């Protein structure tokens, strides 16, 4: 006895409830499948960091990995989902740092710079994809909007913490400092990625951080807060 063929709609397609869900939707896989999926994701990250999402061709990516285009779709479902997984991969890899290091002072900025340098590929990935996501209807626009908002909020919190410790003057606008710091770091990232041999990212960030305290710190001779 043969299985009954699934009913089809007027256009010949199988209705959504009868379609097999793609493993990219959270299905559990064997270790071998997870390894293959991670290999695809790693290759996609490298390709996106070099060419951006507009230059990414799924057929070319599949060919470079020696797999069929259908196999790539099996793991990720669509190009948009692959893009989302790529940017979230950096979030996952950085999560340990941000969970363990609640930023309480601008003095920690060089630590963030070290993390950026240690993850140069992901730094380039974000620089390239963010530049392609300026329009509100771009698929990653909201992702980067939220990320920059979180980054500014971390700096704002650090400034407020330094104020309480008497390291920063009470009249300093924490939000304005946050915009400046993020702008500085993003601009420096681009220069460093383009010319790493002549742009010492960490040294510049250390000097810049010292300058922030010189500009916004209490007047010489002022008693520190207890």
From TrEMBL:
InterPro entries for this protein: BetI_C, Homeodomain-like_sf, HTH-type_TetR-like_transc_reg, HTH_TetR, Tet_transcr_reg_TetR-rel_C_sf
Entry superkingdom: Bacteria
Pfam family for this entry, one: TetR_C_6
Domain HTH tetR-type residue range list: 34-94
DNA-binding region: 57-76
Keyword annotations: DNA-binding, Repressor, Transcription, Transcription regulation
Composition bias, Basic and acidic residues: 1-10, 26-35
Positions of the UniProt region annotated as Disordered: 1-35
The protein's name: TetR/AcrR family transcriptional regulator
